[in-house]
Write a structure and sequence with these properties.
The complex is a heterodimer. Chain A is mostly beta strands. In chain A, about 0% of the residues lie in helices and about 55% in strands.
């Protein structure tokens, strides 16, 4: 149980284009999803907290107009990197928190984004 | 703000031996959760063990156990009978106030190598 998927697992795009990453909770409902960014050999950095049906809460320093987050249902959250640039290249990870037990986050497998 | 410190960037252990990974944290809260997550080369974050701060008993999951010292704000992970599959980056994480949607605060990670 408590499986989270991400799609795509990796994506390469040209500078200036937009990329959408999906995060799905497959066997549970998630009122809250989190989006993290991870650089090589570093820890996870929280970008934003996404609550179903409401606007995401962004961490300080994260551009909300660049990283658009939508959490339209209890099983799906999306992160759109708009007008991507090479510095946006990174590993993006989502996690989901169940409604039943709100103490544990389950992580997706991550998405590697490379912007050329 | 809560902080989590992992002072060992790298550790190594011989297969079948025991290793302990250190973690300290800083908080003014009295009730919170602590976690150890494992991130193997696949980059998938896997929950290893969790500890509720109000419980005095140390959590155990098979070969993994913790030494939770609340007064010292210390939360170390012991891996017994180490296996090659235990090789990964290990992150200690803190989450305040159980029962609500709260983000995790991660340490910087410890890269564990298991030697055959």
């Amino acid at each position: 149980g408590a499986v989270v998927s991400q799609h795509p697992s990796w994506v390469i795009c040209k500078s200036g284009t937009s990329v959408k990453i999906e995060c799905r909770s497959l066997d549970f409902q998630a009122t809250t999803m989190f989006w993290y960014r991870q650089f090589p050999k570093q820890s996870l950095m929280l970008m934003a907290t996404s609550n179903e049906g409401s606007k995401a809460t962004y961490e300080q320093g994260v551009e909300k107009d660049k990283f658009l987050i939508n959490h339209a249902s209890l099983t799906l959250s999306t992160l759109t990197v708009t007008s991507a640039h090479p510095e946006d290249s990174s590993f993006y990870i989502c996690s989901a928190q169940t409604t039943a037990t709100t103490d544990t986050q389950y992580f997706g497998p991550g998405t590697r984004l490379t912007v050329l | 703000a809560q902080t989590v410190t992992q002072s060992q960037p790298e550790m190594s252990v011989q297969e079948a031996e025991t290793v302990t990974l250190s973690c300290t944290y800083d908080t003014s809260e009295s009730d919170y959760y602590l976690f150890w997550y494992k991130q193997p080369p696949s980059r998938q974050m896997i929950l290893v063990i969790r500890q509720e701060a109000y419980k005095q008993q140390n959590a155990t999951e098979n070969r993994f156990s913790v030494n939770f010292q609340k007064a010292a704000k210390s939360f170390s992970l012991k891996i017994s009978d180490s296996q090659l599959g235990d090789a990964a980056m290990y992150f200690c994480a803190y989450r305040r106030t159980p029962g609500s949607a709260r983000q995790l605060t991660f340490g910087s990670g410890t890269q564990l190598t298991v030697l055959p």
